[in-house]
Design goal:
- This protein has one helix and 34 strands.
- The N terminus is likely disordered.
């Protein structure tokens, strides 16, 4: 995750006031969220198994409390039947079906959470002061804590011996997993006008990680050394307003076999063939969320609230649903033969493969992102409530 807010150091013009105290704002055209239409004969797809309110030690800076338009995306991480979650108020917990296994306060507001190593041994979070904290996933003990010159608003990538993360200053960092020391850093063409946050880095093979950045590009770097391997342009600035110039790649790219799918704030949505390095298609859709795939389709939620399914090879539109306009949708997730998305009122919308909404569920507070693992859907709200649903 990330915190979705526009910033510019040059003009100090923001969509909402940040901690720097700038008073000028960009006034977006009011967008009225669509009213939900009652579903006739709704199906039962999700069953609530656990509702857990996360602990907090109250360590949220006053500037973040005052900034109601900042949406911190604190993602749940899973390993087996255990999930790891963090509250904005600074507490990380490991939880299973019987309750909390451990909790620890990191004594600062948490801005990025939770990154978990593939072996399930190390959990990593980032804080408002720029600290990166690595925890023993078995007991919550602090393995190390290191301070960076910037804050990160998106989960890290924890590989076998590196912790990779995107700083909000446009720098990509590779830390030693055992010590937290900075092994390498890579500076991108940082834009002073962009979304606060960046895409979570992902590994596309054992040696290569992909980062999305505010310059509208994706960068592939060697995980061990940080040496750049290739770069692809995705986001394109268009129009005359300040927001029209935003081209951030703010969502984690999606890898399906040898294909890479990337969204950007300004558009387009792009599919790449990684075997040739060529674009398969580019579609004019604006998005701040990671796509999902189901069968031969890729599903994207747009910034305006449209949910669209594309052919995974050609990019042709298979279906489009416009019933959730301006409801601030989360990333879509595939569960079984269905697609689910969440919204700002905590509603989970369930689509069938034709794009029809066939069911809904409700959680407490604005949903920030969805994750699924095996036959479980994990939802976390801005209010610090995690629900586990069985499908």
């Amino acid at each position: 995750m990330r915190t979705k807010m526009i910033h510019t150091a040059l003009a100090c013009a923001l969509l909402a006031m940040t901690a720097t105290g700038c008073s000028k704002t960009l006034k977006a055209e009011p967008k009225t969220p669509a009213k939900l239409v009652q579903i006739q004969a709704p199906m039962t797809v999700l069953q609530l198994q656990l509702e857990q309110r996360l602990d907090t030690d109250g360590k949220i800076p006053r500037s973040l409390k005052l900034n109601k338009k900042m949406t911190t995306d604190l993602q749940v991480a899973t390993h087996g039947d255990v999930f790891f979650a963090a509250s904005e108020g600074g507490v990380v917990s490991a939880i299973n079906a019987t309750g909390k296994l451990w909790s620890i306060a990191v004594k600062d507001a948490i801005t990025s959470a939770v990154a978990l190593s593939l072996d399930g041994k190390v959990a990593v979070v980032g804080t408002h002061s720029g600290k990166v904290v690595a925890l023993d996933a078995n007991n919550g003990n602090v393995l190390w804590a290191k301070s960076l010159p910037t804050v990160s608003y998106t989960p890290a990538l924890v590989s076998s011996n590196r912790v990779l993360l995107s700083g909000n200053n446009g720098t990509l960092y590779g830390l030693d997993r055992a010590t937290g020391d900075v092994v390498w850093q890579f500076d991108t063409q940082f834009s002073t006008l962009g979304i606060i946050g960046a895409a979570k880095p992902i590994a596309i093979d054992r040696d290569t990680a992909v980062f999305g950045t505010t310059d509208g590009r994706i960068h592939a770097l060697n995980i061990q050394t940080g040496v750049p391997m290739w770069t692809r342009a995705v986001g394109m600035a268009a129009g005359g307003s300040m927001t029209d110039h935003l081209k951030d790649v703010d969502a984690m790219p999606l890898v399906v076999g040898s294909r890479l799918y990337v969204t950007s704030f300004s558009g387009p949505f792009v599919g790449f063939d990684m075997t040739t390095g060529q674009k398969m298609f580019a579609k004019p859709i604006k998005s701040l969320t990671t796509p999902t795939h189901l069968g031969g389709m890729i599903v994207v939620t747009s910034t305006s609230g449209d949910v669209t399914a594309f052919n995974a090879i050609t990019g042709d539109v298979l279906w489009e649903n416009k019933e959730l306009k301006y409801r601030k949708l989360t990333n879509p997730v595939a569960i079984g033969n269905y697609i689910v998305v969440g919204d700002f009122e905590g509603v989970i919308h369930i689509f069938d493969t034709s794009g029809k909404i066939i069911s809904r569920e409700k959680s407490k507070g604005r949903l920030t992102s969805l994750q699924s693992n095996q036959n479980r859907l994990y939802t976390q709200t801005q209010a610090g409530v995690v629900n586990v649903w069985r499908f």
